[in-house]
Amino acid sequence: METSIITDIGAFLTTAKRPLLVLVGPTASGKTALSISLAHALSEEGKTVEIINADSRQLYRALDIGTAKIRTEDMQGIPHHLLDQLDPKKEVTAAWYKREAERVIGEIRQRAHVPFLVGGSMLYVSAIVDHLAFVDRADPSLRKTLRKRLQTEGPAALFAELQELDPEGALSVDPRNSVYLLRALEVCLVTGRTLKHAKKKNTSSDEDLFFMGLALPREELHRRIAARTEAMFAEGFVEEVSSLLQHGYSAEDPGMQSHGYRDIAERLQKASVEEVRRDAALKQAITAKARQYARRQMTWWREDERIRWIAPSPIPQPGALHHPLPGGEGRQ
Questions:
Q1: How does residue 144 score in pLDDT terms, banded at 50, 70 and 90?
Q2: Residue 200 annotated as binding site
Q3: Does the annotation place 89 within a ligand binding site?
Q4: Is 119 marked as binding a ligand?
């Protein structure tokens, strides 16, 4: 970790009236490890930091291994918020997240502590740092029509339509996540605008941002993503999905649209847990989708001049997903 960044954050906190620390970066880049390190370093300077999750998948209960959700013992006494908030059957929206995150940020400030937003969900981070005001103009009949089209035409056709309507907004949507895909297409069709312009910026906000981003060479990021996939399978990713299915959840539930969960759930319909755990092709497919997601993340953030890009810590060895933080890569 750069020692200068602690000095710079300290200087920022002495002058900022409404400070908000923000850390983004592609999947598997080391956001969790760095956020814990920064929080500890700032505590030595007399600043108490509380972390707010900005990963949409980690909002769901019972989705732990596959979302790389930090464990309580790895938090090292640093308060964390907006983890395990929703049942996997419930749909989550950026508008809901914005309300909850702003509430938590306000409560942290009432304690005279420093809020620290950490995560990789592009629209969710933007909802806070860009002060988006979401336009809610749901059309039930259109939603029904789109669901029927999803069944008959498939997600590829609907995603292609979204790309035509809103090429930039499509970057934030996983075409296999039917919940987000239908919602994004519905917003574009109902409002006649792109996702970005269907949301309004509240320019009256007086947030003071210290905006950081983790960046690393593509080859190293790919190694990290592959190592994470292997570690997740070793820790019981397949068993976690199997347990969810046994408790009544399905591959179609909103929470199960998260990376890897639906893939494993569908595979478990045809094979045993042991067979799925050893499925090299499945691991490769999940790794490839994570790489694609990382590319979309960096495309979203690359041109944001507010972000101070920093290098992460060295890549962990395979199986190091739960090494103590800081010091190992840990969950990210």
A1: confident
A2: no
A3: no
A4: no
CA distance 221 to 219: 5
**Binding site annotation covers 330?**
no
Q: Is 54 annotated as a binding residue?
A: no
What mean pLDDT do residues 233-260 have?
96
pTM value? 0.81
| Tokens read off for 108 | 């942290």
Range of the domain at 116: 3-135+200-217+303-310
27 is in an annotated binding site: yes
- Assess whether the previous peptide bond of 326 is cis (omega < 30° from 0): yes
* Inter-residue contact 169 to 195 (CB < 8 Å): yes
Q: Which residue has the higher pLDDT, 84 or 137?
A: 84
Question: Alpha-carbon Rg of the chain, whole angstroms?
Answer: 20
28 is in an annotated binding site: yes
Query: Is the residue at 326 inside a domain?
Result: no
Structural domains in the chain (count): 3
* Residue 32 assigned ligand-binding role: yes
